[in-house]
Amino acid sequence: MILDRFRLEGKNALVVGAARGIGKAYAQALAEAGANVVIGDILKNEAQKTADELAKTTGRKVISIYVDVRDTSSVKKMFDEYLQEMGELNIAVNNAGIATNAPAEELTEEMWDELMAINLRGIFLCCREEGQIMIKQGKGGAIINTASMSARIVNYPQKQAHYNASKAGVVMLTKALAVEWAEYNIRVNAISPGYTLTEMNLRPEVEKLHPHWIERTPMKRLADPEDMMGAVVFLASETASFITGHELVIDGGFTLW
Q1: H/E run at residue 190
Q2: Contacts of 67 (CB under 8 A, 6+ apart)
Q3: What is the pLDDT of residues 90-139, one digit of tens each?
């Protein structure tokens, strides 16, 4: 049965950056599909609260582990703790990211480095550990990175050259790793959300941009985090067993015109 191929019973998943927003929706979707889930996040208290909530509502094993993806030692420590708790890594979702705005002529090196350290370097550090673990296990696996439709467009009116560059980097990193790790049956794909109603985009200084974003979106609304749930289950499941290096854009048609 085709629906059985979407089920994730017996699988263990890690979702980095899942205390809230899109990452929380990813974790919920994977747990509802049957996977046990570890939430890795720098927001320690929020991550624990989310883990407790999802464990209660889904009946799956859901725990949280602290991680700062900017710090190599913190990333390695997270994976050590993950393996102690779960034993095996089958699905990894790398979602940690930030967005800041600044005109390019005013963009400091510190602002550039901080965003890149989280959005791109952090994704690489997690992918590297995940690849090493999955290769050693010899059972394949699924890695899913969160990019953004901003990898394909220049955002306006907000000015964020560094953010766009970081997300374009995530897409190309995803494609490169997909080719390198295909021989191990490790599938590496990306989800690129459009403008989504997360805590980050509900800040007052950002919320004033919503009418402009909605006007530019053919479906005339912003995404809810729940709109990403089906995509992460699909890419993590056996249904996508021959899909790798793909960027799945979920933007209500924004990038089509």
Answers
A1: strand 186-193
A2: 16, 40, 41, 42, 74, 75, 77, 78
A3: 999 999 999 999 999 999 999 999 999 999 999 999 999 999 999 999 99
pTM above 0.85, yes or no: yes
pLDDT in tens, 212-230: 999 999 999 999 999 999 9
A 10 A CB-CB count for 243 gives: 14
Provide the CB-side half-sphere exposure for 220 (13 A, CA). Answer: 0
Query: Which residue segments constitute the domains of the chain, with CATH numbers given?
Result: 2-249 (3.40.50.720)
What is the rounded (10 degree) CA torsion for 228, 142, 34, 69? -70
Q: Enter the tokens of residue 163.
A: 């953010």
Note if 195 is an active site residue.
no
Query: Which residues, 6 or more positions from 173, have their beta carbon under 8 angstroms from its beta carbon?
Result: 120, 123, 124, 127, 145
Residue written as tokens 């990211």?
Answer: 97
User: What is the C-alpha separation between 57 and 53, in angstroms, rounded?
Assistant: 6
Question: For residue 184, what are the CA distances in angstroms to 131, 137, 177?
Answer: 9, 10, 11
CB 173 within 8 A of CB 127: yes
Candidates 26, 82, 163, 195; catalytic one: 163
Q: Rounded to an integer, what distance in angstroms lies between the CA atom of residue 176 and that of residue 94? A: 16
Q: Does the N-terminal peptide bond of residue 157 adopt cis geometry, omega within 30 degrees of 0? A: yes
Rounded to whole angstroms, the Cα distance separating 128 from 194 reads 26
